[in-house]
Structure prediction request, 177 residues.
Amino acid sequence: MKRSSRFVVAGLLVACLGGGVFWALSDRARAEDKKKPDPAQVERARETVKMLDDLYKTAVVGITQTYVEKQADVPAATLAKQVFAAMHKKGYHNARLIDATGKPKNKENLPSTPFEKKAVSEMKAGKTYVEEIGEVDGKPVLRAATVVPSVMKQCAYCHGGKENRLLGTIVYEIPIK
Ligand code: HEC
Prediction:
């Protein structure tokens, strides 16, 4: 092989290797981009959680105030769960009412996912809000947990304990888009 063509071959090799490395790096950057959603989108998802949380909690307190006088009445939690199920079915978001006392009215409400467990343990330690960014089917989601204290005397009719004690959390999972 002539000296000049050897240079060409070497040059091509370097170019290919370099291209490969560049491609691998940019691919990794793309993968990381995918994992890290745009902060503005995350902020919008947080706003949605705040709005839903205000809506659900206002409804639960209003229903309790208006209709609940004794243990035998229908708890607002039952209606809240129906609304959560309907929203999930329509593909908007997931919301779950989770127990933080260890003695739930319904065992279904015990924390089950790693995030639910983490949220409950952090709330027991005094936090009122916990969040993480996760992924479902390759798409980013915001998981957020907000505190549910015993906000009025009626809560204690059925759940016992003093006013303001921690009863649970609402855990949201909403798409970031
Ligand atoms: C009339 C009785 C009653 C009242 C009043 C009541 N709850 Fe409940 N609560 C229940 C029942 C029953 C469930 C279980 C519902 C289910 O999952 O089917 C429940 C579930 C819950 C849960 C999920 C954990 C668990 O124990 O299963 C939380 C948190 C909760 N309620 C908070 C509240 C708050 C806050 C108030 C006051 C605004 C309140 N509840 C008032 C009966 C009541």
